Amino acid sequence: MDPLGWKTELIARFEDRLIKPPLPLPPRIDPDAVKHFDYRKVYAAGNLRHDQEMLIGPRIHDGNDGYLVITPLERGDGGSTVLVNRGWIPRSKRAKVDRKEGLPTGQVTVEGLLREPWKKNIFTPENRPDLGQFYFPDVHQMAEITGSDAVWIEETMSTSYCILHVYQFAAYGRLAQIPTYSKPTIEKRKGFPSVDLPR
Question: What global pTM score does this model have?
Answer without folding.
Answer: 0.76
